[in-house]
């Protein structure tokens, strides 16, 4: 499989030390992993979009999720589930940043679980007691569906939807926190 020109260039730039005088190629395993991840990313319009978004977000997420394969798999899931639910993937990343700091095993003081801090009562409500809310795919499916519902219920008002998601409707701290993470870390210009 021939490397994709843009992906190759972006990875070279990301791996290039500022003081480098000799050209350094990215690690072959990382290049191969990126190519496989891009090829498996069904929720993107085209390969270019997938390459750019995955590389950009992977770089931003590196401090929270060290393993490149885990990071790319997670980002592909975020993009897929957010897209299915009609959400911007970068706002979902901001919500996860606020809720769990990217800890899939996080449990809140009220029992919410996983990256998106989903309440376990949803499993009983859906008749799916076997679902594991610390599984990223399951947690993202539940969380994105819930946020999407609240966003529709609030006629697109992201602040009210986030407050509902957090159970703090009428308060502004939580929506401001998520929007702050979005603006400071995760926002992607269209």
UniProtKB/TrEMBL annotation:
User: E.C. number, please?
Assistant: 4.2.2.n1
Q: What class of enzyme is it?
A: lyase
Q: What InterPro entries does the annotation carry? A: Lysozyme-like_dom_sf, Transglycosylase_SLT_dom_1
Q: Where is the Transglycosylase SLT domain?
A: 78-172
MF-aspect GO terms: lyase activity
Question: Which key words tag this protein in UniProt?
Answer: Lyase, Signal
Q: Hey, what's the signal peptide range on this chain?
A: 1-20
Which family is this sequence assigned to? Belongs to the transglycosylase Slt family.
List the protein's name: Lytic transglycosylase domain-containing protein
Q: Whose protein is this, by species?
A: Stutzerimonas chloritidismutans (Pseudomonas chloritidismutans)
């Amino acid at each position: 499989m021939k490397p994709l020109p843009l992906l190759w260039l972006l990875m070279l730039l990301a791996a290039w030390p500022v003081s480098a005088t000799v050209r350094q190629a990215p690690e072959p395993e990382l290049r191969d992993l990126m190519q496989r991840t891009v090829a498996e990313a069904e929720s993107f319009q085209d390969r270019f979009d997938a390459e750019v978004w995955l590389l950009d977000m992977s770089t931003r997420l590196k401090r929270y999720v060290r393993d490149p394969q885990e990071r790319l798999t997670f980002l592909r899931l975020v993009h897929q589930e957010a897209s299915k639910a009609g959400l911007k993937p970068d706002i979902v990343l901001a919500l996860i940043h606020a809720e769990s700091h990217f800890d899939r095993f996080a449990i809140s003081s009220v029992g919410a679980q996983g990256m998106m801090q989903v309440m376990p009562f949803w499993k009983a409500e859906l008749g799916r007691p076997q679902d594991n809310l610390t599984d990223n795919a399951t947690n993202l499916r539940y969380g994105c569906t819930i946020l999407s519902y609240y966003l529709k219920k609030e006629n697109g008002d992201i602040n009210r939807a986030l407050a509902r998601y957090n159970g703090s409707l009428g308060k502004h701290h939580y929506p401001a926190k998520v929007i702050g993470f979005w603006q400071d870390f995760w926002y992607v210009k269209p």
